[in-house]
Amino acid sequence: MKYCPECGTALVLKMLKGEGEIPYCGKCAQFRFPVFSTAVSMIVQNPDKTKILLIQQYGRQDNILVAGYVSKGESAESAVRREVMEETGLELVSLEYNRSEYFPRSNTLMLNFACVAAGESLDGVNNEEVDLAQWFTRDEAREKIRPESLAKRFLLYFLDKK
Ligand SMILES: [Zn+2]
C-alpha cells in the first residue's frame, strides 16, 4: 500500500511502539495497516469422521476443499457454516480451527477449519458453484487432493496431527 486509502497522500514508514515500522499518513495523522482479505477453507468430514468431502470447481479436475471469503462484519465460524451450506447443502454439527496460511497471489489470509457434517447426503450440492462433490476415505483424500496446494498442506497437517 503506497497511498492513504482515505485521502490519497503518500504513506511514509513510521515507528509504532510494539509493532515496528508501519505505513503512516501525515495528513490524517493515522497509521494505515496493510489491507488483506480473509477467507475460510473447510475439511468437511462425514458424521463418523471416516470420510472427507472434496470438490471440483470451475471446470477443473482438481479435488479441493470447500472455501470462500469472509464477509465484512461476519465471524470466521459463521462464514464456515454459510459457505459449507451454500456450496454443499450440508449442515455442520461441529467445527474446530486447524491452521492458517497467507496466500500472496490473492492477498488473502486463509483460515482452515476441520468440520463434521450432520449427514452424508450430497443431494443439496449447489451445481452452479460446484462441478463435483465426493466423499473419500481419509487415505483416499490424502492421495486425491490437488498436489502442492494450500488445501493439501491443510489436510495433511490435520490428518497427521492425530
Ligand atoms: Zn490520509
Shape assignment: elongated
| CATH class group of the largest domain | Alpha Beta
Output the structural class: alpha+beta
User: C-alpha Rg, in Å?
Assistant: 19 Å
The profile of the biggest β sheet is:
6 strands, mixed
Small-molecule binders here are: zinc ion
Overall pLDDT level? 96
Give the topology:
Elements: E1 12-16, E2 20-25, E3 30-31, E4 37-45, E5 51-56, E6 66-69, H1 76-88, E7 92-103, E8 108-117, E9 132-137, H2 138-144, H3 150-160
Parallel strand pairs: 4-8
Antiparallel strand pairs: 1-2, 2-3, 4-5, 4-6, 5-9, 7-8
Describe the structure.
It is a single chain. By secondary structure, this protein is of the alpha+beta class. The chain has two domains: 1-35, Ubiquitin Ligase Nedd4, Chain: W, CATH 2.20.70; 37-160, Nucleoside Triphosphate Pyrophosphohydrolase, CATH 3.90.79. It has helices at 76-88, 138-144, 150-160; strands spanning 12-16, 20-25, 30-31, 37-45, 51-56, 66-69, 92-103, 108-117, 132-137. Strands 4, 5, 6, 7, 8 and 9 form a six-stranded mixed sheet that branches. Strands 1-2-3 form a three-stranded antiparallel sheet, with no helix packed on it. A hairpin with a 4-residue loop joins strand 2 and strand 3 (30-31). The radius of gyration is 19 Å and the shape is elongated. The mean pLDDT is 96. Bound molecules: zinc ion.
